[in-house]
Amino acid sequence: MNRLAVFIAVSVSAVALSTGPAATADPSPGKHGSSARHHAPAKPASESARLARTILNTKAITYANSHVRGKDKASLPKQNLVDVSNGRLARTSPWGHKKGTRVALDTKMLTGVLKLNTQYHYKFEISELVGGEHSKKSKHYAGRAVDVTWINGRHVGKKADHRGLMKACRKLGAKLVLGPGDKDHGTHVHCQW
Ligand SMILES: [Zn+2]
Question: What is the pTM of this model?
Answer without folding.
Answer: 0.78
